[in-house]
Amino acid sequence: MNFEDYRGVWVFIEEKDGIIAEVALELLGAGRRLADKRKTQLSGVLIGDQVTGLAQTAFEYGADCVYVYDDPIYRFYRTETYMRAMLACVEKYKPEILLYGATSTGKDLASAVATDLPTGLTADTTQLDVEEDTGLLLASRPAFGGNIMATILCKKYRPQMATVRPKVMKALQRVPGRIGEIVEESIPITEEDIRTKVLEIVRATTQRARIDEADIIVSGGKGLGGPAGFQLIHQLAETLGAAVGASRDVVEAGWIGHHHQVGQTGVTVTPKIYFAVGISGAIQHIVGMQNSGLIIAINKDPAAPIFQSCHYGIVGDALEIVPMLIEGFKAA
Ligand code: FAD
Q1: Helix 227-240 and helix 318-331: axis angle, to 10°?
Q2: Distance between CA atoms of residues 131 and 153, nearest Å
Q3: What pLDDT, in 10s, does the model give residues 204-247?
Q4: Where are its TM segments located (predicted)?
Q5: ipTM
Q6: Does the N-terminal peptide bond of residue 159 adopt cis geometry, omega within 30 degrees of 0?
Q7: Could you tell me the distance, in angstroms and rounded to a whole number, from the CA of residue 216 to the centre of ligand 1?
Q8: Is-above-0.80 flag for pTM?
Q9: How far is it, in rounded angstroms, from Cα 320 to Cα 42?
Q10: Ligand 1 centre distance from Cα of residue 223 (Å)
Q11: Coil, strand or helix: which one is 80?
């Protein structure tokens, strides 16, 4: 493998329903920083149906060049179609660094691509940098139960690939009218070549905001005592128009589904306001919410670690305090 052949920082530009995913804009911001440090170009790979127009948005968020695979066959995400396009692109253009969002699509695509390339994949990273003298990608992520940050280097293979958690990188300020180069690409692929067919799309129906998009999250932990106590979390969230979050222990106890779990093995969130109710504040939980704008903790134990990570702390019984908050907010 001749490393000299591999150039540039590349980002998979995830798109859904004609809109670029937030995480792709965040990756363009992170990628721009890495590309500037490496004194190289930032490129995007856009795969979808009628997506060429989205390249302009990518330029305005930092891309110099966008490689576009625009074909009805990519209308819905399927591992096989997207993987083939991405593999063709990697083999043709040889990116030095290739980043994907750690979304269900990004994780699926990155791991599929990694299995077909002679390289590895650092999953779920939360920090990215490049080493000054070697130019190697430094991809960091929590390890050993969140107790340490591990920095993973891919010394022997190219491209250096990583998935990056949503909400941990910052998108650049949009520069309207910023221009770049569009390269239209295609590969010979037909429906007959593909084993999977999309028969129907069933959208999740929920009145509640998703935790990765909400401005306010009310999160509950084991301190609520059981599913009945956890209902208070739903009620407070309802009152505030907030999303419901949870600690892993609550999810494992079956009080609420996994997609509400905040933390290292759940979702990373950055709402404007985060309520941590009856949550002890284990490091694995903290890493998923520590960048929230305002953190308010309620815990009956004044020595609970959560009080080290919050802006405001209330020491007391959540089963008494939460009803008072609901009443107070309703009256306000
Ligand atoms: P507990 O630790 O049992 O804490 C309950 C808290 O409630 C205590 O502080 C107690 O003082 C307080 N309390 C009790 N009664 C009341 C009351 N009436 N009113 C107010 N407060 C009360 N955890 C996550 O959350 N997210 C993750 O993604 C995650 N990933 C993990 C990954 C690994 C590899 C490992 C090893 C662990 C992970 N964990 C994760 C688990 C984590 O270590 C903790 O076990 C978990 O966060 C604890 O959940 P909890 O705070 O709800 O429960």
Answers
A1: 20
A2: 10
A3: 655 556 888 899 999 999 999 999 999 999 999 999 999 999 99
A4: none
A5: 0.99
A6: yes
A7: 20
A8: no
A9: 53
A10: 8
A11: helix
